[in-house]
């Protein structure tokens, strides 16, 4: 990928993206060309100096739109990602395993909450983002369109899916947008616990009976390739990477992170006593990393088009959970209105103090299942 500076790419995209609104839009009414150029120069300098861009700072519309797209997709992935594992809560083989799995699934809901809140600082709302998800206008990760067929899938998700998520997300802790970077710090700590519980679960199965070992191997066989796809299309087909890396939203390309993940997994699989389902994995001395087999990108494209094994089921369940949670949102809004601090300003009519709360506070208790 050719090296580009934030300035070059910012100029290329200035004014081309749909502004999401907010304080720092390039579309600020009445702004002169000179003022816009000053803003752009200050933004580029901040990115170049590895400073954080904060919600009230000026930012190019396309930067804002890119962040909203990625953060929304990330938040949607967290809450839709609750479904495959939640499928096993009632069938966990022991109280200990059930408690751990419930805590993990709850953590994913929390991650969705942090990320929707961080996205709201860009001038969008959680309601709007969820509407777009439910209407199929925003994506969630391809990985959550695969079924969890056995208990070992819970282990494979923890080890591989959370493992891939951490590999991708640790660099996001240094993302140029402050609220996203800060949300990622806490999320990564929790993902790290998730990855370990999956590894430990698989280890127990791998060292168990022959049937348990076979179940663990089968789960790894099914989750390996979709986990590699989580990192996104190959670099030469990744439409957003060049710009996102120039803006320091992304710090590494999709292929770089995918390779890093394979390098991490190979010795872990060995320690687990399980095989990765790829006969082409071998050490490449020259690269200082592992080579691996070709990914079936047509499968990835089909899943993105909505034709994965569980796309329909996941989105239907998500829409149903949202509808069934309407009473909780209504109750929270009524409670917030009742307890809203009284307005004392003489210019504010008394009735205004009892008006409905902001959508942000009403949405605060949005269900996440
Ligand atoms: N699935 O140009 P790029 C988790 C789309 S969280 C679906 O490379 P970008 C925790 C992409 O949006 C997992 N779509 O895009 C957990 C774009 O579409 P567009 C989620 C994908 O953004 C564990 C097009 O392809 N993590 O697992 C995928 O630069 C267990 C072109 O792609 C994040 O979201 C995909 N895998 O790079 C929860 C991390 N890949 O807009 C529960 C943050 C690409 O052109 C249980 N996100 N697309 O229509 C990122 O780092 C980036 O957005 C990438 C994609 C790397 C995912």
List its salient traits:
single chain, 369 residues, mainly alpha, two-stranded antiparallel sheet, 15 helices, disordered C terminus, binds Phenylacetyl coenzyme A
Give your account of this protein's structure.
This protein has 369 residues and is mostly helical. Helix content is 59%, strand content 2%. The chain is built from 15 helices and two strands. Strands 1-2 form a two-stranded antiparallel ribbon. Helix 5 runs antiparallel to helix 8, helix 7 packs antiparallel against helix 8 and helix 7 packs parallel to helix 9. The longest helix is centred in the middle third of the chain and has 29 residues. 37% of the residues are buried. The N terminus and C terminus are likely disordered. Phenylacetyl coenzyme A binds next to helix 3, helix 7 and helix 10.
Strand order of the largest sheet: 1-2
Q: Would you list the SSEs in sequence order as H and E?
A: HHHHHHHHHHHEEHHHH
Strand content: under 5%
Task: Give the number of helices.
Answer: 15
Query: SS-based structural class?
Result: mainly alpha
Q: What ligands are attached or bound here?
A: Phenylacetyl coenzyme A
Residue runs with pLDDT of under 50 for 5 or more positions: 1-27, 348-369
Q: Which geometry do the CA atoms define?
A: globular
Residue share in helix: 55-70%
Q: How many β-strands, per DSSP?
A: 2
Give the averaged pLDDT, no decimals: 88
